[in-house]
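Annual report, structural modelling task.

Input specification for the acetyl coenzyme *A complex:
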Amino acid sequence: MRASSWTISDDVNRRSCLGESRLGAPSNPSNDLHKRPHTVTDPVLVPGLAGIPAAKSSISFIDGTAGILAYRGHRIEVLAEHSNYEETCFLILEGRLPTAAELETFRGDLAARRGIEPAVVQTLSSLPKTGHPMNGLQVGLATLAMTQPKVDVKDPASVREAVLRLIAATPTLIATLERLRRGDDYLPPTEGSNTAEAFLYMLNGEAPSAIAERTLDCCFVLHAEHTMNASTFAARVVGSTESGPYTVASSAVGALYGPLHGGANERVLQALESIGGCEQVAEWYAAKRESGGKVMGFGHRVYKTKDPRAHTLQRLAGELFDAHGSTPIYDTALELEKAVVADLGGRGIHPNVDFFSGIVYQKLGIPTDAFTPIFALARMVGWLAHYEEQHQDNRLFRPAQIYSGVHDATWVPIDERG
Ligand code: ACO
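The model returned the following structure:
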């Protein structure tokens, strides 16, 4: 018995090491890279795929040296000044600005899809109250998918219905997660409101002030889309398997959660609070550099100057503080920016979008661990526009690797291993 199973294992091991398939047929000799001598044409590993194009896209554009970001050709500063989240969503999805009538219809389409089913509320209310809302959001998106008609990924109309549902219902999922964990009930959205207004109403149980609504709306515009970042790439990769939009959204949320990506906004605020005031910035920063740690909210793979979104967020923060009084955190942030840029600006390290967003959200009364979910709420449209674009000419993502392991390893039976 033992001898026989050992022979089979050994044979399987030998064949796979020699490049034969487990079914016995010889594999394609050209795939047996480990047997060929290395040549100058061997693939070169680019860590983090930095600078490697993964798709052709007409959705957004960045010039990281000049500090330019545009959605469908429209500069972010112009959109932040003149547009609103619904109009920006239409622009990103359709590739053009809507007419007044189209915008009205689009707003109505979102408002009609904002409520969530009792089964979703029930699932969210069963979650531990101590967990992070980004995990809760992934649960919410998966549960939402299970309450919806099956999406036919080959049918653009079926996909678009799911896309609208996701953009509309994600704010409700996030507000509901927050309400439930503080012991409040699900508050259904009011009819006819825009996304920022609906979100703040569901979160706080009262109509927001005009400045709060406008500020949050502008934050949504700034975060709506940003070329081939980690979460968008994750959305494209999962979408390329012909998985549906709900699964794509949940995967992108997972990628955004990391502290090197969207999760930085939460950590920026924690750092600013821990510094303890302007006077402590120099000492805190010196200790941070000494420990080799990164300063959250600074640096970017593409921008080598101040992120254009950070400029607008800083202005929004200033307006909020003028209207509602300043907080020491804002002054600490300005002092920290000076220290980091004096030290690392020459290496292209400047504030990114996450540096000022948390300060704005805190002033709006939003809890710190809801910052990254709000980023996800706003970015949902960008992820899904990339998903739709991927499907215009889809090919499964399946990159290569450079194998760095051993070959022809010897199989040792388990009871003979040391
Ligand atoms: N603080 C201190 N040093 C930094 C920082 C920072 N925030 N960012 C980069 N560096 C340094 C690195 O230590 C490294 O130094 P070294 O060459 O001496 O080792 C060098 O700059 C290159 O850093 P990488 O991390 O390799 O550069 P990359 O292009 O991959 O970085 C990233 C981009 C991940 C955003 C990085 O700047 C970072 O970790 N920033 C802090 C986290 C953050 O704010 N993330 C949000 C980004 S915006 C967004 O995703 C929405």
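DSSP finds 17 helices and three strands in the chain.
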